[in-house]
Amino acid sequence: MSADLHPSVERFSAAVEDLIIEQAAKKKRRDNLRWVVKDLQAAAERREFPDWGRESLHELMTPLGWLVYEELARAGLTRSRHRASAGVHVPASMSSMRTRATAWNAVAQQLGLEFRVKLPPKPTAKLPVADRQRAVMRRELSKPAGSPMREDARIRMLAMYGVILDTRARSGELVKMTLSSLGEDLATVSVVRQPQGVGEPRVPVVETIRTSEFTRTALRQWLEVRAEKVRSVEGAKDALWVSLRDNHTGVSRGQLFVPSGMPLQIRGLERAYSRVVARLNDQMPGREAGWSPLPGTVEQLRRSVRKIDVVSLNLAA
Does one domain contain both 270 and 135? Predict the structure, then answer.
């Protein structure tokens, strides 16, 4: 591995390995430190990275060196999955920036250098959806009459709500679901769990999870709506969650028609969820005494789930 590293990163890596041995570092600590080595190498491969930062670790481990690395990392330009995504770069999370800064400071201390990076604040955990809020959300989504939502949107969200509560699926896991994720008679849903965190790559795991009767009923209704929406779609039609409206998107200042029935992406799924929550939050103060607004993200609903019924667990193909 070291033969492929720039000289400064190679020395950084050697300091990391010394740290791991001296501290008898546990796996998570080892993974995080070694991940930062790879991340720093990815930054050094960018043309924006200065030659002096590639050649000398002592010059790299300065306020200016950190500033260069921080800007590249914060913009999402050092992560391999973003570099391979045709120019699409997702900004780094606060937690990953803390991981980078913590490793940087540990190496600086190991080498006896004075400069230290100020750690970003720990991200504040968002509140999960409370039991009462979930009950109200389920009740309101189950009402076809008098709903301020379009009927197809209500049915999709009801099914999605049930699947989230049964499986504790993240947005990224939801958008990857296909019709083959559904078991016979809708009795199960399979979720591909992508390992989270910044450590060494791990193999995704497929959890097959038993569904509730509520979710099975909601999915049956959604599959009827979905069948109509994908009727005019060309090509593969296997995505479980699809768009409900025709749309247009600009292409080279022109307009490209996008029919309904296209697979939902993470941003579209999150927007659909937040729209529903916003409508309920507008309505409920007049209906529910002491109403507390629903949190606005899928993650907060997912984190409110305490238990799921896993039928089987397998490595992803």
Answer: yes
| Cβ contact 16:33 at 8 Å | yes
CATH (domain of 189): 1.10.443
This model's pTM is above 0.85: no
63 and 148 share one domain = no
As a whole number of angstroms, the distance between CA 309 and CA 294 comes to: 25
Would you state the structure tokens that stand for residue 192, as one six-digit string? 């591909």
Domain that holds residue 24: 2-111
Per-residue pLDDT reduced to its tens digit, 175-201: 999 999 999 999 999 999 977 654 445
* CA dihedral sign, ordered 199, 202, 204, 208: negative
Shared domain for 159 and 291, answered yes or no, is yes
Angle CA 150–151–156, to nearest 5: 100
- The count of structural domains within the chain is 2
